[in-house]
Fold:
Amino acid sequence: MKNRRFMNKAYLIEAESFGDFGGWVVDQQFMDQMGSPYLLAHGLGVPVKDASTTIRIAMPDRYRVWVRTKDWGASLGASEAPGRFHLLVNGSPLSVTFGSEGAQWHWQDGGTVEITGGDVSLALHDLTGFDGRCDAILLSADLDFHPPDEGEDLAMFRRKALGLPTVPEKSGDFDFVVVGGGIAGICAAIAAARLGVKVGLVHDRPVLGGNNSSEVRVGLSGKVNNLPYPSLGRIVNEIAPIGYYDFVEAEQSQDDPASRRILAMDPVKRIHNAGPTSNYEDDKKLHAVQSEPNISLLLDTHVVAIEKRGYEIVAVIAENIRTGRKLRLKCRFVADCTGDGTVGALAGADFRVGRESRAETGEELAPETADNLVMGTSVQWYAERSEKAVIFPECPWALPFTEENCQHALRGDWNWESGIGKDQIKDFETVRDSSFRAIFGNWDFLKNRCRKKGEYANYSLAWVAYVGGKRESRRLLGDVILTEQNIEQGKVFTDACVTVTWPFDLHYPNPENGRHFPGREFLAISESKPIKPYAIPYRCLYSRNIGNLFMAGRNISVTHVALGAVRVQKTTGMMGEVIGMAAALCKRNDASPREIYEKYLNKLKERIAGFEIEHCNLNLARCSEGRNDI
Structure:
C-alpha cells in the first residue's frame, strides 16, 4: 500500500492507493501540475459509494488530520463548493467538511482525533456527487506540523514519507519506447513490434485508445488506405471499432458484402462521439497490443522525466500511478505519442504553442498577429430516458442559465468545447472543470426551472466524461514544418507518406455562447475549408534537435492551421505505422530518424508500400507456429 510512517510521528496515505475505490475514480491528468493523481467523486449529482482503506498505526496518540484537496468551484468564481465530502475514521466522520475551501490544492485541516492504535479504517464519504477530490491524507502526532503544500518541497515530503526509492527501478532495455497509448501510439508500437523491434508502450490510463477510448469517446475520423501508399492504415483498421464513417462508406457501396454486414449492425453504432461504451471497443485495442510478443505494455504509468546523453534520450523515467514507484526504461529510440508533446518538452525538444502570424507562414487562414490561441477540450456527455421521473439537484455553484441562453440538448458532442485560447497543459484542470460547471448548470436548469422541464422529467445524465478530449497544445518541431499552402498547393515532398483527407478544421468560441458567457464559453464552432488528399512528409514525424525522438499524433511538426487537417485519429494512426516502420529501419541500420530520410528513404518507402504483404506473411508464420491470438 502507498502509505508509510514518517519520522515516527505521521502517516501519509495517498488516495490512489486505497484498497477499495468504491465509486471514486483515479484522475491523473493534472499530476504534473499539482503533484499527484487523486480520487474524484464523479457521480453526476448522485453521491458515489465510499472509497475505503485500512492502515496499521503502531503508536496510540492524538493525531491531527490533514486532507489535501480543493474547492474546485472557487477557482471558477462559484459562490458555493460543489465537491464536498467527509473523512470517516473508524466509521465516524470528522466534523470538518472537506473540499469546501480554497481555490488551489492545499492541506485542509481536519482537526484532531484520538487513535488507540492497531488497524484503523479510513473512508471518503461523498456528499454531493459533483466531483469532490482527494489527493492524500496525513495523520500527524505532531499537532503543530503543517505539511508542505506544493512544489519540490511537497514532492520530497511524499518520497520520504512513502519510503520510495531514490533511484528508479530498472524496467527493461528497449529498442523503442512509445509513450502514449492512443491510436497513434498503439499503431507505432504494433508496427515496430511486427518488424522485430523490442517495444515498451507506456500509457497513463488504465485503458488504451486515448481520445477513442470509452473514457473520452471521440469517434475515428479521416480515411485510410490512400494513395500513394494504400497499405497504410492496415493496423488502424485492425484496432478501430466500427463507427460513423464506416456506415457512411458502407451506404455508398451497399453491394459489397462487408458493407452489407456493417449496415446490418445495431444503429446505435452510428453514434460517432459520446456514444455507449461498447462503441469504442477498448478490449479490441488491448487484445491487439497484448497479442504482440515484442511489446511490453505499462498501463497506469506516467512519464515524469527523461535521461539524455548529448542530444539523445537514453532512458525514460515513468511513475506507476497507483504505487508511486518510478521505473527506468532504457531505450535506443523514443516516440512521443502523448498529444501534449510531454516527452519532447522534458527532453528539451523545440516546440511551438499557438498560432503563427500570416507574415511568418504566409498562410491565408493564419491571423495577422501571432498569439497563444489553441483549440479547446471537449467534455462530452449524454442523457438517457427512464420509465419514471428522475430528480436532479440544483447547482447554485454552476453557470447560471436562463430561457435565453440554455441549451436544449440530450447529448453534448464535440462542440461542447472549453478552454479555447487557454493553456491546455498548465490550466487544464480549470479547463476541464469549467466544462463541468456548464454541463451540470445547463442540466439543472432544464430539469428544475425551464419552461419545458416536463419534457426532461424522465431523463437523467447517463455519462459525462471526466477525461478531457484535447485537440491542441504543444507541437514538436521537425525538419519540415507543414503549412497550409503545402497542403493547398499540393507541394510534393520526396518523403511524402501519410495521406491527409480531413479539411482544415479550426475551432473558435461560439460567438452567441460568448455573448451570454463572455470569457466562459463552453461551446465552439468549426470553420472548415476542404482539401484534396495530401501526403505529408516523413520529416514532420521526428524532432529536429533531439536525435532519436519520433512523434506521431496531434503533436507533430505542423503549423496551427495545418494541424486542423492532420489531427484526426485515423490519420494519426497512419503516422504511428510509419514511425514504427522507421524505428525498425533505425535499429537494423544503426541509424537516426533523420538518417532514414538522408540515407534510407527508399528503404522506408519500400517498407511502407510492402507492409501489407509482409504483415500477411508474418501472420501466416504465426499460424504455422500454432498461434491463435492474431
